[in-house]
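Question (not urgent): is this output format expected?
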Amino acid sequence: MTATGTGTDTPPPHGTAAPPGPTPAPQTTTPTDRLFAALANSTRREVLRLLRDGGPQSVQALADHFAMRRPSLSEHLKVLREAGLVSEQRSGRQRIYRLEASPLADVQDWLHPYERFWRERLTGLGALLDRMPDDGAT
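Got this back:
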């Protein structure tokens, strides 16, 4: 059946909205998904670097490093906070953000099998190159 419900292949009349497409399946967001989503953005990675290198900082101090409005930075900080990568403390009217690096251990755990995979491949390549005769070039 078509958008107009007539069973024909004609589009809906002008000014009539076609019904939305199929509803996407609901997505579950795990803590690991939130962590990787937070790290996927370069602005958020830069915020983490600033907090790592400079220690706890106010929103305004962080905002001074970016060419964006403060509400936009606050959205990035919210994502980082929801991923557990930063904590927020109120000090008077200021909000002070601190790096919480412990969730990064989950990233390291996730990457470990890939590190092992590449280490084995490179070790094998090194062994192969060691067995190959030198070409005599100096």
